[in-house]
Amino acid sequence: MRLLEERIRKDGVVKPGNVLKVDSFLNHQMDIELFNEMGKEWKRLYSDVKVDKILTIEASGIGIAAIAAQYFNVPVVFAKKTKTINLDGDLYSTEVKSFTHQTVYNVVVSKRFINAGDNLLIIDDFLANGNAINGLMDIAAAAGAKVAGVGIAIEKGFQEGGRELREKGIRVESLAIIKSMDAEKGTIEFG
Amino acid sequence: MRLLEERIRKDGVVKPGNVLKVDSFLNHQMDIELFNEMGKEWKRLYSDVKVDKILTIEASGIGIAAIAAQYFNVPVVFAKKTKTINLDGDLYSTEVKSFTHQTVYNVVVSKRFINAGDNLLIIDDFLANGNAINGLMDIAAAAGAKVAGVGIAIEKGFQEGGRELREKGIRVESLAIIKSMDAEKGTIEFG
Protein backbone atom coordinates (compact mmCIF):
# COMPACT_ATOMS: atom_id res chain seq x y z
CA MET A 1 0.00 0.00 0.00
CA ARG A 2 1.80 3.01 -1.35
CA LEU A 3 0.36 5.47 1.19
CA LEU A 4 1.66 3.46 4.14
CA GLU A 5 5.05 2.83 2.53
CA GLU A 6 5.45 6.53 1.87
CA ARG A 7 4.52 7.32 5.45
CA ILE A 8 7.02 4.80 6.78
CA ARG A 9 9.75 6.31 4.59
CA LYS A 10 8.81 9.80 5.76
CA ASP A 11 8.22 9.28 9.48
CA GLY A 12 9.60 5.84 10.34
CA VAL A 13 12.92 5.71 12.18
CA VAL A 14 15.22 2.74 11.77
CA LYS A 15 17.04 1.81 14.96
CA PRO A 16 19.82 -0.73 15.50
CA GLY A 17 18.65 -4.31 16.05
CA ASN A 18 16.11 -4.23 13.23
CA VAL A 19 13.80 -1.96 15.17
CA LEU A 20 11.50 0.31 13.19
CA LYS A 21 9.93 3.14 15.18
CA VAL A 22 6.58 4.25 13.77
CA ASP A 23 5.25 5.72 16.99
CA SER A 24 4.47 9.10 15.41
CA PHE A 25 1.59 7.66 13.36
CA LEU A 26 0.94 3.99 14.18
CA ASN A 27 1.45 2.79 17.70
CA HIS A 28 1.69 5.68 20.14
CA GLN A 29 0.31 8.62 18.24
CA MET A 30 -2.32 7.33 15.83
CA ASP A 31 -3.14 8.95 12.48
CA ILE A 32 -6.80 8.05 12.21
CA GLU A 33 -7.10 9.18 8.58
CA LEU A 34 -4.30 6.81 7.63
CA PHE A 35 -6.00 4.06 9.67
CA ASN A 36 -9.16 4.59 7.61
CA GLU A 37 -7.22 4.13 4.39
CA MET A 38 -5.67 0.97 5.85
CA GLY A 39 -9.11 -0.32 6.87
CA LYS A 40 -10.45 0.29 3.36
CA GLU A 41 -7.48 -1.54 1.87
CA TRP A 42 -7.94 -4.61 4.10
CA LYS A 43 -11.62 -4.63 3.14
CA ARG A 44 -10.69 -4.47 -0.55
CA LEU A 45 -8.20 -7.31 -0.15
CA TYR A 46 -10.61 -9.43 1.88
CA SER A 47 -13.79 -8.52 -0.02
CA ASP A 48 -14.21 -12.16 -1.09
CA VAL A 49 -14.00 -13.50 2.46
CA LYS A 50 -16.66 -13.87 5.16
CA VAL A 51 -15.59 -12.09 8.33
CA ASP A 52 -17.70 -12.32 11.49
CA LYS A 53 -15.31 -10.72 13.90
CA ILE A 54 -11.92 -9.04 14.05
CA LEU A 55 -9.44 -10.38 16.59
CA THR A 56 -6.48 -8.28 17.65
CA ILE A 57 -4.14 -7.87 20.61
CA GLU A 58 -3.56 -4.99 22.98
CA ALA A 59 -2.36 -2.35 22.81
CA SER A 60 -1.16 -1.37 19.32
CA GLY A 61 -3.62 -3.53 17.43
CA ILE A 62 -6.72 -1.96 18.96
CA GLY A 63 -6.82 1.34 17.10
CA ILE A 64 -6.27 -0.07 13.60
CA ALA A 65 -8.69 -2.94 14.28
CA ALA A 66 -11.43 -0.60 15.56
CA ILE A 67 -11.18 1.62 12.50
CA ALA A 68 -10.95 -1.33 10.09
CA ALA A 69 -14.03 -2.93 11.69
CA GLN A 70 -16.14 -0.12 10.29
CA TYR A 71 -15.51 -1.43 6.76
CA PHE A 72 -16.40 -5.01 7.73
CA ASN A 73 -19.35 -4.09 9.99
CA VAL A 74 -18.21 -6.48 12.68
CA PRO A 75 -17.21 -6.22 16.34
CA VAL A 76 -13.60 -6.36 17.49
CA VAL A 77 -12.23 -8.53 20.27
CA PHE A 78 -8.85 -7.61 21.66
CA ALA A 79 -6.77 -10.23 23.42
CA LYS A 80 -5.26 -9.08 26.68
CA LYS A 81 -1.68 -9.51 27.74
CA THR A 82 -1.05 -10.61 31.29
CA LYS A 83 2.03 -11.72 33.19
CA THR A 84 0.03 -13.76 35.68
CA ILE A 85 -1.04 -17.27 34.77
CA ASN A 86 -4.79 -17.07 34.78
CA LEU A 87 -6.53 -20.28 35.77
CA ASP A 88 -9.95 -18.84 35.04
CA GLY A 89 -11.78 -21.53 33.09
CA ASP A 90 -13.69 -18.87 31.21
CA LEU A 91 -10.60 -17.78 29.28
CA TYR A 92 -8.67 -19.05 26.30
CA SER A 93 -5.02 -18.55 27.18
CA THR A 94 -1.74 -19.01 25.39
CA GLU A 95 1.89 -18.08 25.97
CA VAL A 96 3.66 -15.59 23.72
CA LYS A 97 7.35 -14.71 23.65
CA SER A 98 8.08 -11.05 23.09
CA PHE A 99 11.05 -10.45 20.84
CA THR A 100 11.13 -6.71 21.60
CA HIS A 101 10.91 -7.03 25.36
CA GLN A 102 12.72 -10.36 25.76
CA THR A 103 9.98 -11.72 27.98
CA VAL A 104 7.09 -14.18 28.04
CA TYR A 105 3.51 -13.16 28.62
CA ASN A 106 0.11 -14.80 28.49
CA VAL A 107 -2.52 -13.76 26.03
CA VAL A 108 -6.11 -14.30 27.09
CA VAL A 109 -9.53 -13.95 25.51
CA SER A 110 -12.83 -14.57 27.21
CA LYS A 111 -14.51 -17.70 25.87
CA ARG A 112 -17.73 -15.75 25.52
CA PHE A 113 -16.38 -13.68 22.66
CA ILE A 114 -15.07 -16.28 20.21
CA ASN A 115 -17.39 -19.02 19.11
CA ALA A 116 -16.92 -22.25 17.18
CA GLY A 117 -17.42 -21.56 13.51
CA ASP A 118 -16.65 -17.83 13.74
CA ASN A 119 -14.76 -16.48 10.75
CA LEU A 120 -12.01 -14.33 12.23
CA LEU A 121 -9.88 -11.69 10.65
CA ILE A 122 -6.76 -11.23 12.76
CA ILE A 123 -5.30 -7.72 12.64
CA ASP A 124 -2.08 -6.41 14.14
CA ASP A 125 0.37 -3.60 13.58
CA PHE A 126 3.56 -5.66 13.10
CA LEU A 127 4.49 -9.12 11.89
CA ALA A 128 8.08 -10.11 12.54
CA ASN A 129 8.73 -13.55 14.00
CA GLY A 130 4.98 -14.15 14.18
CA ASN A 131 4.75 -14.94 17.89
CA ALA A 132 1.79 -12.67 18.64
CA ILE A 133 -0.14 -13.80 15.55
CA ASN A 134 0.58 -17.45 16.35
CA GLY A 135 -0.77 -16.84 19.86
CA LEU A 136 -3.99 -15.44 18.41
CA MET A 137 -4.16 -18.43 16.01
CA ASP A 138 -3.83 -20.78 19.00
CA ILE A 139 -6.76 -19.04 20.65
CA ALA A 140 -8.85 -19.23 17.47
CA ALA A 141 -8.06 -22.94 17.19
CA ALA A 142 -8.97 -23.56 20.83
CA ALA A 143 -12.32 -21.90 20.20
CA GLY A 144 -12.96 -23.88 17.03
CA ALA A 145 -13.04 -20.64 15.05
CA LYS A 146 -11.71 -20.28 11.53
CA VAL A 147 -9.02 -17.73 10.64
CA ALA A 148 -10.27 -16.20 7.40
CA GLY A 149 -7.10 -14.17 7.11
CA VAL A 150 -4.48 -12.05 8.78
CA GLY A 151 -4.19 -8.31 8.16
CA ILE A 152 -0.87 -6.71 9.06
CA ALA A 153 0.17 -3.09 8.79
CA ILE A 154 3.95 -3.63 8.60
CA GLU A 155 5.58 -6.98 7.94
CA LYS A 156 9.30 -7.41 8.46
CA GLY A 157 9.78 -9.58 5.41
CA PHE A 158 13.31 -10.45 6.47
CA GLN A 159 12.01 -12.25 9.56
CA GLU A 160 10.32 -15.61 9.32
CA GLY A 161 6.81 -14.98 10.69
CA GLY A 162 5.05 -14.15 7.42
CA ARG A 163 6.69 -16.95 5.45
CA GLU A 164 5.82 -19.55 8.09
CA LEU A 165 2.18 -18.47 8.24
CA ARG A 166 1.82 -18.55 4.44
CA GLU A 167 3.49 -21.98 4.29
CA LYS A 168 0.81 -23.22 6.67
CA GLY A 169 -1.79 -22.01 4.17
CA ILE A 170 -2.82 -18.93 6.15
CA ARG A 171 -3.68 -15.93 4.04
CA VAL A 172 -1.65 -12.93 5.17
CA GLU A 173 -2.20 -9.47 3.71
CA SER A 174 0.48 -7.02 4.84
CA LEU A 175 0.04 -3.43 3.75
CA ALA A 176 3.78 -2.78 3.77
CA ILE A 177 6.48 -5.46 3.61
CA ILE A 178 9.98 -4.39 4.53
CA LYS A 179 12.64 -6.29 2.60
CA SER A 180 15.54 -4.71 4.39
CA MET A 181 16.42 -1.72 6.49
CA ASP A 182 19.63 -0.08 7.57
CA ALA A 183 19.92 1.80 10.84
CA GLU A 184 23.20 3.49 9.92
CA LYS A 185 22.04 4.81 6.57
CA GLY A 186 18.43 5.19 7.71
CA THR A 187 17.20 3.41 4.59
CA ILE A 188 14.20 1.14 4.18
CA GLU A 189 13.56 -1.12 1.19
CA PHE A 190 10.12 -2.52 0.54
CA GLY A 191 9.50 -5.84 -1.21
CA MET B 1 -26.78 9.08 26.63
CA ARG B 2 -29.77 6.82 26.48
CA LEU B 3 -28.28 4.33 24.02
CA LEU B 4 -25.30 3.63 26.29
CA GLU B 5 -27.42 3.46 29.44
CA GLU B 6 -29.74 0.97 27.77
CA ARG B 7 -26.78 -1.11 26.65
CA ILE B 8 -25.30 -1.10 30.17
CA ARG B 9 -28.65 -2.22 31.59
CA LYS B 10 -28.94 -4.96 28.98
CA ASP B 11 -25.38 -6.30 28.86
CA GLY B 12 -23.58 -4.89 31.90
CA VAL B 13 -22.99 -7.25 34.82
CA VAL B 14 -22.74 -5.88 38.34
CA LYS B 15 -20.19 -7.73 40.46
CA PRO B 16 -19.48 -7.42 44.19
CA GLY B 17 -17.10 -4.60 45.16
CA ASN B 18 -18.74 -2.04 42.86
CA VAL B 19 -17.38 -3.71 39.77
CA LEU B 20 -19.33 -3.26 36.54
CA LYS B 21 -18.41 -5.68 33.76
CA VAL B 22 -19.04 -4.26 30.31
CA ASP B 23 -16.56 -6.46 28.50
CA SER B 24 -19.11 -7.71 25.98
CA PHE B 25 -19.33 -4.32 24.26
CA LEU B 26 -16.85 -1.80 25.71
CA ASN B 27 -13.49 -3.07 26.90
CA HIS B 28 -12.77 -6.55 25.62
CA GLN B 29 -15.24 -7.06 22.81
CA MET B 30 -15.90 -3.66 21.21
CA ASP B 31 -19.18 -2.69 19.56
CA ILE B 32 -17.88 -0.27 16.93
CA GLU B 33 -21.35 0.96 15.95
CA LEU B 34 -21.96 1.96 19.56
CA PHE B 35 -18.51 3.59 19.66
CA ASN B 36 -19.50 5.71 16.66
CA GLU B 37 -22.61 6.92 18.45
CA MET B 38 -20.49 7.75 21.49
CA GLY B 39 -18.01 9.64 19.31
CA LYS B 40 -20.82 11.66 17.75
CA GLU B 41 -22.18 12.48 21.19
CA TRP B 42 -18.81 13.69 22.51
CA LYS B 43 -18.47 15.83 19.39
CA ARG B 44 -21.95 17.28 19.98
CA LEU B 45 -21.12 18.02 23.62
CA TYR B 46 -17.73 19.51 22.78
CA SER B 47 -18.76 21.26 19.55
CA ASP B 48 -17.92 24.65 21.13
CA VAL B 49 -14.41 23.63 22.12
CA LYS B 50 -11.16 23.63 20.15
CA VAL B 51 -9.59 20.17 20.21
CA ASP B 52 -6.17 19.56 18.64
CA LYS B 53 -5.58 16.06 19.87
CA ILE B 54 -7.25 13.30 21.83
CA LEU B 55 -5.27 11.81 24.70
CA THR B 56 -6.22 8.42 26.12
CA ILE B 57 -4.61 5.53 27.97
CA GLU B 58 -4.07 1.94 26.99
CA ALA B 59 -5.76 -0.41 26.59
CA SER B 60 -9.49 0.22 26.97
CA GLY B 61 -9.37 3.87 26.00
CA ILE B 62 -7.81 3.28 22.58
CA GLY B 63 -10.82 1.95 20.67
CA ILE B 64 -13.29 4.60 21.78
CA ALA B 65 -10.71 7.36 21.30
CA ALA B 66 -9.82 6.18 17.77
CA ILE B 67 -13.46 6.11 16.69
CA ALA B 68 -14.27 9.44 18.40
CA ALA B 69 -11.26 11.09 16.72
CA GLN B 70 -13.02 10.74 13.37
CA TYR B 71 -15.60 13.31 14.51
CA PHE B 72 -12.94 15.73 15.70
CA ASN B 73 -10.54 15.15 12.78
CA VAL B 74 -7.56 14.94 15.11
CA PRO B 75 -4.91 12.35 15.93
CA VAL B 76 -4.99 10.26 19.08
CA VAL B 77 -2.12 9.74 21.50
CA PHE B 78 -2.40 6.85 23.89
CA ALA B 79 -0.41 6.88 27.11
CA LYS B 80 1.37 3.64 27.87
CA LYS B 81 1.34 1.81 31.17
CA THR B 82 4.61 0.43 32.39
CA LYS B 83 5.76 -1.16 35.63
CA THR B 84 9.35 -0.14 35.12
CA ILE B 85 10.46 3.33 36.05
CA ASN B 86 11.56 4.85 32.80
CA LEU B 87 14.34 7.37 33.09
CA ASP B 88 14.15 8.22 29.40
CA GLY B 89 14.26 12.00 29.25
CA ASP B 90 12.10 11.94 26.15
CA LEU B 91 9.04 10.86 28.12
CA TYR B 92 6.49 12.51 30.32
CA SER B 93 5.88 10.08 33.16
CA THR B 94 3.54 9.94 36.12
CA GLU B 95 2.51 7.37 38.71
CA VAL B 96 -1.04 6.00 38.80
CA LYS B 97 -2.63 3.79 41.43
CA SER B 98 -4.95 1.15 40.07
CA PHE B 99 -8.03 0.61 42.19
CA THR B 100 -9.06 -2.52 40.27
CA HIS B 101 -5.69 -4.22 40.38
CA GLN B 102 -4.43 -2.80 43.69
CA THR B 103 -1.13 -1.83 42.18
CA VAL B 104 0.92 1.18 41.06
CA TYR B 105 2.07 1.70 37.51
CA ASN B 106 3.74 4.43 35.53
CA VAL B 107 2.02 6.16 32.67
CA VAL B 108 4.27 7.55 29.97
CA VAL B 109 3.85 9.65 26.84
CA SER B 110 6.59 10.62 24.44
CA LYS B 111 7.36 14.33 24.67
CA ARG B 112 7.23 14.51 20.87
CA PHE B 113 3.46 13.98 20.83
CA ILE B 114 2.14 16.59 23.25
CA ASN B 115 3.12 20.18 22.73
CA ALA B 116 2.77 23.33 24.80
CA GLY B 117 -0.48 25.02 23.90
CA ASP B 118 -2.17 21.86 22.54
CA ASN B 119 -5.87 21.67 23.33
CA LEU B 120 -6.41 18.12 24.54
CA LEU B 121 -9.58 16.13 24.87
CA ILE B 122 -8.96 13.30 27.32
CA ILE B 123 -11.05 10.20 26.67
CA ASP B 124 -11.36 7.03 28.72
CA ASP B 125 -13.84 4.22 29.26
CA PHE B 126 -14.32 4.57 33.05
CA LEU B 127 -14.11 7.30 35.63
CA ALA B 128 -14.23 6.09 39.24
CA ASN B 129 -11.69 7.52 41.68
CA GLY B 130 -10.11 9.48 38.86
CA ASN B 131 -6.57 8.17 39.18
CA ALA B 132 -6.02 7.43 35.50
CA ILE B 133 -7.52 10.74 34.39
CA ASN B 134 -5.47 12.63 36.96
CA GLY B 135 -2.37 10.91 35.61
CA LEU B 136 -3.21 12.10 32.10
CA MET B 137 -3.86 15.60 33.49
CA ASP B 138 -0.41 15.56 35.12
CA ILE B 139 1.13 14.71 31.77
CA ALA B 140 -0.83 17.44 30.00
CA ALA B 141 0.32 19.93 32.65
CA ALA B 142 3.96 18.84 32.34
CA ALA B 143 3.72 19.45 28.59
CA GLY B 144 2.11 22.85 29.03
CA ALA B 145 -0.96 21.63 27.18
CA LYS B 146 -4.51 22.66 27.98
CA VAL B 147 -7.19 20.12 28.85
CA ALA B 148 -10.21 21.28 26.88
CA GLY B 149 -12.33 18.60 28.44
CA VAL B 150 -12.66 15.02 29.56
CA GLY B 151 -14.94 12.55 27.79
CA ILE B 152 -15.89 9.45 29.74
CA ALA B 153 -18.03 6.52 28.68
CA ILE B 154 -19.13 5.36 32.14
CA GLU B 155 -18.71 7.40 35.31
CA LYS B 156 -19.24 5.80 38.68
CA GLY B 157 -21.01 8.78 40.18
CA PHE B 158 -20.83 7.31 43.66
CA GLN B 159 -17.03 7.52 43.62
CA GLU B 160 -15.21 10.81 43.98
CA GLY B 161 -13.28 11.14 40.71
CA GLY B 162 -15.84 13.08 38.69
CA ARG B 163 -16.80 15.42 41.52
CA GLU B 164 -13.15 16.27 42.26
CA LEU B 165 -12.37 17.01 38.61
CA ARG B 166 -15.43 19.26 38.24
CA GLU B 167 -14.56 21.08 41.48
CA LYS B 168 -11.17 21.87 39.94
CA GLY B 169 -13.01 23.48 37.03
CA ILE B 170 -12.37 20.66 34.57
CA ARG B 171 -15.20 20.02 32.17
CA VAL B 172 -16.20 16.36 32.31
CA GLU B 173 -18.78 14.87 29.95
CA SER B 174 -19.73 11.35 30.93
CA LEU B 175 -22.08 9.52 28.58
CA ALA B 176 -23.52 7.42 31.42
CA ILE B 177 -23.31 8.23 35.12
CA ILE B 178 -24.09 5.43 37.52
CA LYS B 179 -25.70 6.66 40.71
CA SER B 180 -25.79 3.29 42.38
CA MET B 181 -25.61 -0.38 41.58
CA ASP B 182 -26.41 -3.53 43.44
CA ALA B 183 -24.57 -6.77 42.75
CA GLU B 184 -27.10 -8.94 44.60
CA LYS B 185 -30.14 -7.58 42.83
CA GLY B 186 -28.24 -6.89 39.62
CA THR B 187 -29.70 -3.40 39.43
CA ILE B 188 -28.12 -0.22 38.09
CA GLU B 189 -29.47 3.28 38.69
CA PHE B 190 -28.33 6.17 36.50
CA GLY B 191 -28.15 9.73 37.71
What's a concise summary of this model?
By secondary structure, chain A is an alpha/beta fold. Chain A is built from 5 helices and 11 strands, in the order αβββαβαββββαβαββ.
Largest sheet of chain A: 8 strands, mixed
From the 3D structure, determine the CATH topology of chain A.
Rossmann fold
Please write the CATH class name of chain A. Answer: Alpha Beta
- Largest inter-chain interface? A-B, 30 and 30 residues
Q: Determine the structural class of chain A based on helices, strands and strand pairing.
A: alpha/beta
* Tally of separate domains of chain A: 1
Total strand count of chain A, please? 11
Radius of gyration of chain A: 16 Å
Please trace the helix and strand order of chain A, writing H or E for each element. Answer: HEEEHEHEEEEHEHEE
How large is the count of helical segments of chain A?
5
The fraction of residues assigned to DSSP E strands of chain A is 35-45%
Helicity of chain A, in percent? 25-40%
Q: From the 3D coordinates, which CATH architecture of chain A would you assign?
A: 3-Layer(aba) Sandwich
